[in-house]
């Protein structure tokens, strides 16, 4: 038998309600349950039933009520008389209040050992025992007051301890709304406010956290005349100073620090002191002359402190940017974040960083200082978990900045560095045999500047240390820079100028011309952009080899082949030489023309069987392509600008992100509407808006093309009318898209365009699947597979298998999963993140219905992260529908309801059906909904 007082009084036997009687028997039972197994005197019970003025026959009436209660409980031994009253014999397992107290104790035991998942599980079970207000019908009776107060307090403690466990599990998004409501109900309960402050801070809302403290303090002072407790004041202090004690406790993940190709020499003191500075945050700037080793020191500090940042350590190199380039784009690219609907790129970056704990290294800020400072100021103000470590020749001038001038190496450390690098050039180098004092002289004369020392050490393959030291006496090598700058800068300039003067005339010309490349180049680009009419290709290779041998250019192996890179300082020196030669404008034009032609070749190549080779060849040129487009816009050259942006639709858009779609929008502003490529540029721009979830913008951009259609061979994603059909499909219009794609199938057949045919057949199958008539799409999907295999194009083959898997997933889920997994693998092989993502998503959705729910949960988390990283909000909303359906399957109904309400509020269909009488709940934006989905699935999968 079960006795329940955590809500309306209730007794059940084998889950069947037991009729206790009217108000008097119920009050009698309640009074006995408040003190189970304890004798309650007859006088006390009489007072409970009739107050201070009982009737003359009260004792006889009490005995009658006891008799009725015994009959209702079906066991006379339950309610026994012992002088001077009665006792109810129940076990703790039979009374919900006792069960609640027992579970609270168990949860505290798990909390003491750090088992916070179990804490949440146990407290969820305990709080589920509550069905309303404890002993609500007896709240005005004296016997119930103390018990109501005791149990209500324990209930609130359980809520607080559950929230504390969720905070320890970094499930901050889940608790903010709940805490906000609790703080409003209990405005002077300090623990709740302190927890709300922590949750708000960790979700990027520092100012709201401080406001919560101010409201608490004002209420305490006004109502009680006291200040907040020391514990609450400490949380306030931590929020104010961005104390790392408030950071999430997740295990370290993520980051893009490069592998260190050479040993790190010296700087032990700087490493230790900078480690302390970084721990203090929020912004540390390493300043100093070019070549002093700022970048290498920053990377070393970041590597040493990787474990301190749960969301990783990320390096963003700003050196490839032009002076007017947007810094936000570069930071977003480094983080793998794509622009979000209705946000600028800078706003997108801030939103992404707001709830994360990471170290962001911004390298070489000096030439984009105003833009870098503005972005960093926003990060410092709004992203409490992010520490910025910047390198620049001067301070950023941002509030809270710690400026750390980087000194040269000591002579001894510089000598060690020289020997290390000299042995890289000449393994048998022995400073003792070659006059070690000469090495020390070189290091002293070069002021311990690492870049200068490394350039000097590279000469060891052709000189002795003594010969290098003798050359340093040449005054021409020491006056390459202006006398007004610091001596160290003169030494560095002298070292670079000296290395430059050691080049042949042809090598000097090539060195200066190679400075036009934003992020290096391969041999083909070097030959095309930097060649001289009277020199053959072999001569260009020989000159480039000379630059590599003399450490003026670095050769790096990549998946696309060898790339040739220049250090930022050397590139700056080369640009100056190029301007002095009067070749800067000519080379900029050559550069833009070459990369436009490369993009056109790649656009054709990625539509054939050699898609992977063209992807590997072109993706490393992202910075060069950006610089080329900027140059074409600056030159007001719509012809080349349109050729470039319309060629990048499949090369970059589906693999890197949607930045090239923004370029297409800019190109439309300078292009004549009657240009043949205008319609393609409109399609590219519209597709980017569609990916970002901006359907209105997509319609507007597509409409600019009018009724015109692109020519045969256009990128698959660049047809304006296709975008309009996609918008309609995602907005719930199931008829127009099917008519459109059916007509386009016929057009593709007439034009004998196999890639277009695969694309249109794929969409016919998708439309039938969305219309819940997948059997009607099987023929189109089968044909798309046949045609795609004939083309040999990996993306086409991926699309076709996706389509066939989609229409077969209900009738033959195992076959469908195999097809979807193959589609994902094919897309991944050619680094096509969009097709890879939708294939992953559909496979996860299929597993969510037909497979192991734990495996499906983990797969859907991967998909959530995929779309969050790439910024495709359209697909992320679709993915949340699949998540909501799985949440219902695994019993996470509260979280499924949150996603349902959020989907509906965003105008998206939901697979969840809520009871019309269900109470209202929170409605989240996309980022909040993704947070709830990721947290719920991850927690459930970890314990399934």
Automatic annotation (TrEMBL):
DNA-binding region (UniProt annotation): 1-90
Pfam families in alphabetical order: BTAD, HTH_77, Trans_reg_C
Domain called OmpR/PhoB-type: residue spans: 1-90
Record-linked SMART domains: BTAD (SM01043), Trans_reg_C (SM00862)
GO MF annotation: an example: DNA binding
Tree of life domain: Bacteria
GO biological process: phosphorelay signal transduction system; regulation of DNA-templated transcription
Keywords: DNA-binding
Alphabetical list of InterPro entries matching this protein: BTAD (IPR005158), HTH_77 (IPR058852), OmpR/PhoB-type_DNA-bd (IPR001867), P-loop_NTPase (IPR027417), Sig_transdc_resp-reg_C-effctor (IPR016032), TPR-like_helical_dom_sf (IPR011990), WH-like_DNA-bd_sf (IPR036388)
Key word Ligase present: no
UniProt family annotation: Belongs to the AfsR/DnrI/RedD regulatory family.
Protein name per UniProt: Predicted ATPase
